[in-house]
């Protein structure tokens, strides 16, 4: 038979390979299903072979994205579908390079991508067994198959890349010949080792070394390398972690024997190595926010915010699905803004005030003014999906049906996502004051503020006086004449309603929007929309839902002399090649994705005037006016020990309590409320907890840093 005679003399193939005429022989000798079953002739097969693609289109394989704290070293978690990190061959142990060749393609350094001897062996073996027992795939052909698989974008492309057909085999041969012309043997080996699947969702040698032996590829020993090389043929069958180690050991020994045959290993070293058992050091690489290390559990809430932020960034795709896919496949190095020291401080202060077993959520967010960098997100909860041992739900209508969200939850209690947040009470007076200052009204704007006021806004219910809204103060001690300093310091409701009437409630709403607030409930969206916003008198008293992240960002604008910065959870996002990830912003500028996004939202003078009045609630002294004799959070200045501004906030029946404070260096917002049942009042006794949490966190976070003072506003805005 012609085919047998051709196969009998391997040397006949060399000239054909060199002359590029291998097609006819390949079709006749290797595509045995076509020859035996389809009767395809060599000439016709050669024509089909030559018509196949000769250029391998290689897309970057999916790689794991790594997320670090602000120090760039502390790993929070990873995101991946296929755990993989590309490493150059120079960072791989010589043992794994030798072992994979010995295991998969002993003639790798001799052939040109298609191995004639392998073809002959495969044909004879398959002819004798009347089936496919050997595939004759060289290491280069295997790489081609993996590259096509990894580059597939549709199920059909995946099927075509992996199906057991002669057409696929011929296509691989055609492409393998081209690959061998384009890359060196070491480059092909590097690509192969970064693409191969080793089991346990470990793609590539970096992930395999980490999963099975908890080490880097460069540190693999001879036995470890032989074990991993043996897995590629059948990762599940030879898995030493889940199967009987007998099969894995036999496969490892097969690799060691081949290494000896190839001269990589002496008989003595081979015998010694084969006598040793497989010793694993398994690890499960973190994946997603639920895998944040247990000792850093509180960081899970920040991680969740990072993920939600990522889903909103057009730089990473046209929609949330594309962006998440990019996160899990893009191989980014993400250095976050999370400061481990500040996070520890905030977590300690929060947990000291309210334990995780409490129905009431007590949380705190810290922002850096002038950059928007989120330095900390702490809450008295455990970041976990397991709610089996959670306490009862605080809503009586739900208590018999579902568990409460404490102590375990993954609900974004601090900001990000779709959760509306909590009513923040009188902290909203900042927006009215800024709107008034922005409209040209000076700090000295004064009103006689009675205990109860008949406003110009429509009203109904208990707070209505003949169809008008009638707000009142929390204490008779607030009655009297006030300017912005004392009105803010004592949180005088009837003063701020008059100030709101003068500037327009819609202007206060617009100011809140300018500083980053978003309306998430149906009621808030309805009331914030013109012309309804002109009648939203209660806005200044904080009846809208808001998150701590938003409030810390808004007050940070005041601390930064009117520069508003979007809250940012990252300081650096690097592509796999080490370059910074970029995007085209709405202005058409090509910028770093992690660059702070800031703008001068209100003038320096307006912000400085607001900061001066904000000294009054904290027990400090304004530079330009009188705070009068008392304030709502007099302990703050003494605790922080440096110039500080801020504002308290409570809602009706103290259903929630807030404090937002800021220095020139940091802004922090803290709350306490029941997120499961907003009508479950926390009580007046709880109102001091957010005050103390913010004050102590600012104090401890800034310890040892130079003291910065606020700049006084100009006389023109004081008057």
From TrEMBL:
<feature type="domain" description="Penicillin-binding protein transpeptidase">
    <location>
        <begin position="365"/>
        <end position="676"/>
    </location>
</feature>
<feature type="transmembrane region" description="Helical">
    <location>
        <begin position="21"/>
        <end position="42"/>
    </location>
</feature>
<keyword id="KW-0645">Protease</keyword>
<feature type="domain" description="Glycosyl transferase family 51">
    <location>
        <begin position="76"/>
        <end position="260"/>
    </location>
</feature>
<dbReference type="InterPro" id="IPR050396">
    <property type="entry name" value="Glycosyltr_51/Transpeptidase"/>
</dbReference>
<dbReference type="InterPro" id="IPR012338">
    <property type="entry name" value="Beta-lactam/transpept-like"/>
</dbReference>
<dbReference type="Pfam" id="PF00905">
    <property type="entry name" value="Transpeptidase"/>
</dbReference>
<keyword id="KW-0121">Carboxypeptidase</keyword>
<keyword id="KW-0378">Hydrolase</keyword>
<protein>
    <submittedName>
        <fullName>Carboxypeptidase</fullName>
    </submittedName>
</protein>
<keyword id="KW-0808">Transferase</keyword>
<dbReference type="GO" id="GO:0004180">
    <property type="term" value="F:carboxypeptidase activity"/>
</dbReference>
<dbReference type="InterPro" id="IPR001264">
    <property type="entry name" value="Glyco_trans_51"/>
</dbReference>
<dbReference type="InterPro" id="IPR001460">
    <property type="entry name" value="PCN-bd_Tpept"/>
</dbReference>
<feature type="region of interest" description="Disordered">
    <location>
        <begin position="617"/>
        <end position="650"/>
    </location>
</feature>
<keyword id="KW-0472">Membrane</keyword>
<keyword id="KW-0812">Transmembrane</keyword>
<keyword id="KW-0511">Multifunctional enzyme</keyword>
<dbReference type="InterPro" id="IPR023346">
    <property type="entry name" value="Lysozyme-like_dom_sf"/>
</dbReference>
<dbReference type="Pfam" id="PF00912">
    <property type="entry name" value="Transgly"/>
</dbReference>
<keyword id="KW-0328">Glycosyltransferase</keyword>
<dbReference type="InterPro" id="IPR036950">
    <property type="entry name" value="PBP_transglycosylase"/>
</dbReference>
<keyword id="KW-1133">Transmembrane helix</keyword>
<feature type="compositionally biased region" description="Polar residues">
    <location>
        <begin position="625"/>
        <end position="638"/>
    </location>
</feature>
């Amino acid at each position: 038979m012609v085919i047998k005679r051709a196969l009998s003399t391997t040397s006949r193939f060399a000239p054909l390979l060199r002359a590029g005429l291998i097609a006819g022989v390949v079709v006749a000798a290797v595509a045995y299903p076509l020859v035996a079953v389809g009767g395809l002739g060599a000439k016709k097969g050669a024509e089909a072979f030559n018509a196949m693609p000769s250029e391998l289109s290689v897309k970057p394989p999916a790689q794991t994205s790594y997320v670090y704290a602000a120090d760039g070293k502390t790993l929070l978690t990873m995101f991946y579908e296929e755990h993989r990190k590309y490493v150059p061959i120079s960072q791989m142990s010589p043992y794994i390079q030798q072992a994979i060749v010995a295991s998969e393609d002993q003639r790798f350094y001799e052939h040109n991508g298609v191995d004639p001897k392998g073809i002959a062996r495969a044909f004879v073996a398959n002819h004798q067994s009347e089936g496919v027992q050997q595939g004759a795939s060289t290491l280069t052909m295997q790489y081609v198959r993996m590259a096509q698989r990894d580059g597939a974008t549709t199920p059909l492309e995946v099927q075509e890349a992996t199906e057991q057909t002669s057409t696929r085999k011929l296509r691989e041969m055609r492409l393998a010949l081209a690959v061998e012309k384009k890359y060196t043997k070491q480059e092909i080996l590097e690509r192969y080792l970064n693409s191969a699947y080793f089991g346990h969702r470990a793609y590539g040698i970096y992930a395999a070394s980490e999963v099975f032996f908890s080490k880097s590829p460069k540190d693999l020993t001879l036995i470890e390398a032989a074990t991993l090389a043996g897995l590629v043929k059948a990762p599940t069958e030879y898995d030493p972690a889940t199967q009987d180690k007998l099969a894995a050991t036999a496969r490892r020994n097969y690799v060691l024997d081949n290494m000896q045959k190839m001269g990589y290993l002496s008989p003595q070293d081979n015998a010694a190595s084969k006598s040793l058992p497989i010793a694993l050091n398994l690890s499960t690489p973190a994946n997603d926010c639920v895998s944040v290390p247990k000792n850093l559990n509180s960081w899970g809430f920040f991680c969740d915010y990072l993920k939600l932020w990522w889903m909103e960034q057009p730089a990473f795709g046209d929609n949330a699905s594309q962006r998440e896919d990019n996160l899990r496949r893009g191989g980014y190095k993400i250095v976050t803004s999370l400061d481990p020291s500040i996070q520890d401080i905030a977590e300690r202060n929060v947990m000291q005030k309210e334990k995780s077993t409490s129905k009431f959520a007590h949380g705190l967010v810290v922002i850096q003014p002038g950059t928007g960098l989120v330095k900390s997100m702490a809450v008295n909860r455990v970041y976990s999906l397991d709610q089996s041992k959670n306490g009862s739900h605080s809503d009586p209508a739900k208590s018999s049906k579902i568990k409460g969200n404490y102590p375990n939850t993954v609900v974004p209690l601090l900001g990000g996502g779709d959760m509306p947040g909590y009513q923040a009470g009188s902290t909203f007076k900042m927006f009215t004051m800024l709107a008034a200052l922005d409209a040209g009204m000076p700090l000295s704007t004064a009103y006689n503020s009675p205990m109860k006021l008949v406003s110009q806004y429509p009203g109904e219910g208990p707070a209505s006086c003949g169809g008008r809204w009638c707000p009142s103060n929390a204490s008779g001690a607030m009655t009297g004449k006030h300017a912005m300093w004392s009105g803010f310091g004592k949180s005088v409701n009837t003063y701020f309603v008059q100030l709101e009437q003068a500037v327009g409630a819609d202007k206060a709403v617009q100011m809140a929007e300018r500083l980053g607030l978003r309306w998430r409930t149906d009621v808030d969206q309805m009331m914030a929309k013109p012309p309804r916003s002109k009648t939203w008198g209660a806005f200044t008293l904080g009846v809208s839902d808001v998150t701590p992240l938003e409030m810390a960002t808004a007050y940070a604008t005041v601390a930064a002399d009117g520069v508003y910065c979007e809250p940012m959870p990252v300081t650096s996002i690097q592509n796999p090649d080490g370059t910074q990830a970029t995007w085209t912003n709405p202005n058409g500028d090509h910028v770093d994705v992690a660059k702070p996004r800031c703008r001068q939202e209100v003038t320096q003078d307006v912000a400085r005037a607001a900061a001066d009045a904000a000294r009054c609630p904290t027990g400090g002294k304004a530079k330009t006016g009188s705070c009068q004799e008392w304030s709502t959070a007099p302990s703050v200045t003494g605790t922080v020990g440096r110039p500080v501004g801020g504002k308290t906030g409570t809602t009706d029946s103290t259903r929630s309590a807030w404090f937002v404070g800021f220095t020139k260096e940091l802004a922090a917002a803290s709350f306490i409320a029941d997120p499961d049942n907003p009508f479950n009042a926390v009580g007046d006794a709880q109102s001091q907890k957010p005050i103390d949490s913010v004050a102590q966190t600012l104090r401890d976070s800034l310890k040892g840093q130079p003291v910065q003072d606020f700049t006084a506003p100009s006389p023109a805005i004081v008057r």
